[in-house]
Amino acid sequence: MRPRTARRRQTIFVGSKIRQLRKERNLTQSELAARIGVQQSDLCRMENGEYRVSLDTLFKILGVFGMDIGEFFRDESAPVTPEHQERELLRLFQRLEPQAQEEVLDFVRFVGSRRGSPWKS
Predict the structure, then answer these.
(1) Is the pTM of this model over 0.70?
(2) For residues 47-59, b (16+ Cβ closer than 10 Å) or e, as one string?
(3) CA 7, CA 11: separation in Å to the nearest integer?
(4) How far apart are the C-alpha atoms of 42 and 54, rounded to whole Å?
(5) Cβ(54)–Cβ(46) below 8 Å
(6) How far apart are CA 64 and CA 60, in angstroms?
(7) Tens place of pLDDT for every residue, the chain, 121 residues?
(8) 118 DSSP 8-state letter
(9) What are the angstrom distances between the C-alpha of 98 and each of 28, 91, 95, 102?
(10) Cβ(16)–Cβ(47) below 8 Å
(11) Which residues lie closer than 8 Å to 25 by C-beta, 6 or more apart?
(12) What is the C-alpha to C-alpha distance for residues 121 and 111, in angstroms, rounded to an integer?
């Protein structure tokens, strides 16, 4: 494969992944663009694979999405390890509002305290 073709595929992959994550989080292009400090038209071009995303911009986007670069490029078809699940749980927990964090902790404590539960307090 020629280097130019590989770069083009990477640009398209990154753009489509950004679009997918943005839509999963119910953000418009305008909202995400404003949060990362670019024009909406530039974000549109990035998502369409017409414009390469700089590393600086990608890190800003990852910050908005609450993920690291490894999560962004992770192969979703790869088997999920317990360590991956723990990191994902912690990442999702940290994104919750304080009240929601307390509710999650209360639930986990309740389930962990049930008789016969495999969880221990």
Answers:
(1) no
(2) bebebbbeeebbe
(3) 6
(4) 12
(5) no
(6) 6
(7) 556 688 888 899 999 999 999 999 999 999 999 999 999 999 999 999 998 999 999 999 999 998 888 888 876 666 667 887 788 788 888 888 899 899 989 888 888 877 665 555 4
(8) S
(9) 26, 14, 9, 6
(10) yes
(11) 65
(12) 9
Q: What is the 3-state secondary structure (H, E, C) of the chain?
A: CCHHHHHHHHHHHHHHHHHHHHHHCCCCHHHHHHHHCCCHHHHHHHHCCCCCCCHHHHHHHHHHHCCCHHHHHCCCCCCCCHHHHHHHHHHHHHHCCHHHHHHHHHHHHHHHHCCCCCCCC
| Structural tokens at position 118 | 């495999």
